[in-house]
From TrEMBL:
SUPFAM superfamilies the record matches: P-loop containing nucleoside triphosphate hydrolases
Top-rank taxon, per record: Bacteria
Protein family (similarity comment): Belongs to the SIMIBI class G3E GTPase family. ArgK/MeaB subfamily.
Organism of this sequence: Melghirimyces profundicolus
CDD domains, per database record: MMAA-like (cd03114)
Molecular function terms from GO: GTP binding; GTPase activity; kinase activity
UniProt keyword list: Chaperone, GTP-binding, Hydrolase, Kinase, Nucleotide-binding, Transferase
Listed InterPro entries: AAA+_ATPase, GTPase/Isobutyryl-CoA_mutase, GTPase_ArgK, P-loop_NTPase
Chain ranges of the AAA+ ATPase domain: 54-308
The protein's name: LAO/AO transport system kinase
Length: 327
């Protein structure tokens, strides 16, 4: 495939066709575009969007070293055996995108290296965290359009940026480990609301039973969405034990959501959130541009000399902003 340099309509269409046909290079190029904020990405997504919506998006989150990558690897193997294709986006907001991180994941996911039914990509910060969340969403769309059946999005930790990223998933898995004392912390951080399934990984370790009990107890205090009670699943990433249970838990959640009309509801609310963010960001950018003009500065002088008021000036510029041509 020739690489589109100009970003013209025809080039973009060819590029999109490449992605729809599952061309790995076209997919990788697109994801790089999103990471760097290249405007061609937005055009590309316009062509791809009608072809998205079929993939099952699974968010996997948890503390560093909880075993997320190991579990995703296990799940990927399991799904490949069942004839399903898998996309994996490993998001690391703490460290910049480095060849090392990518290599690390490649090595860990080594068994899939030559399998065209698996696409693995590490995503890092190339700017602010909001940018990473958006790039991840767009990358997931590209994999979706390319026809991957299930897409795993792995994020570290329980911070705001991770919660943001989890807001694009159909199902969210929270991975905990015995003895780390993180159960209570996690509940404090309010991530419980976003988790649909709890995993106690490293179940080979002491304290796994207690952790399962603790989580189950705390879950009784909460009401899951539409009556869904999140299961607590034991896994051993190292041996692969529990992988089937985890996958069947995910399928159960998907079925439950669909049967209760929650699946589409959740997707609608994710889209609502996304559109809101796009509008907010655009408005802010337009405003900042206008604040840089001499007209703005001279109006400000008028307010300063009491010839106008802050509210009056704000009203004027607001109506200019929303009445203006925009973009
Ligand atoms: N004992 C034990 N160790 C495990 C298990 N699953 C994973 N590990 C080990 O835990 C370590 C971390 O595993 P990863 O899969 O890299 O964890 P992660 O959550 O992806 O880590 P980050 O992406 O760095 O946050 C590795 O050394 C794994 O071999 C398990 O079930 N039992
Ligand atoms: Mg990992």
């Amino acid at each position: 495939m020739t690489e589109p340099r100009e970003g013209g309509g025809k080039d973009i269409r060819q590029w999109a066709d490449g992605i729809l046909a599952g061309n790995r290079r076209a997919i990788a190029r697109a994801i790089s575009c999103f990471e760097s904020g290249d405007p061609r990405g937005v055009k590309l997504l316009k062509s791809l969007y009608p072809h998205t919506g079929s993939a099952f998006l699974v968010g996997v989150t948890g503390a560093p070293g909880a075993g997320k990558s190991t579990l995703v690897n296990r799940l990927a193997l399991h799904l490949r055996k069942a004839g399903l294709t898998v996309g994996v986006l490993a998001v690391d907001p703490t460290s910049p995108f480095t060849g090392g991180a990518l290599l690390g994941d490649r090595v860990r996911m080594g068994r899939h290296a030559l399998d065209s039914g698996v696409f693995i990509r590490s995503m890092g910060t190339r700017g602010h965290l909001g940018g990473l969340a958006r790039a991840t969403r767009e990358a997931a769309r590209v994999l979706d359009a390319a026809g991957f059946d299930t897409i795993f999005i792995e994020t570290v930790g329980v911070g705001q940026s991770e919660i943001e990223i989890m807001h694009m998933a159909d199902s969210v898995v929270l991975v905990l480990t015995p003895g780390s004392g993180d159960a209570v912390q996690v509940f404090k951080a309010g991530i419980m609301e976003t988790a649909d399934l709890f995993v106690v990984n490293k179940a080979d370790r002491e304290g796994a039973d207690k952790l399962v009990r603790d989580i189950e107890e705390m879950l009784h205090l909460a009401k899951g969405e539409g009556g869904w009670l999140p299961p607590v699943i034991r896994t051993e990433g190292k041996t692969g034990r529990g992988t089937e249970d985890l996958w069947s838990g995910l399928k159960k959640h998907r079925t439950f959501m669909r049967e209760h009309g929650l699946w589409e509801d959740r997707r609608r609310s994710h889209l609502r959130r996304e559109v809101q963010t796009i509008i907010e960001e655009r408005l802010q950018r337009l405003l900042l541009d206008r604040m840089d003009t001499s007209a703005f500065r001279s109006d400000l002088e008028l307010v300063h000399s009491r010839g106008s008021s802050p509210h009056r000036m704000a009203r004027k510029w607001l109506s200019d902003l929303i009445g203006g041509k925009g973009e």
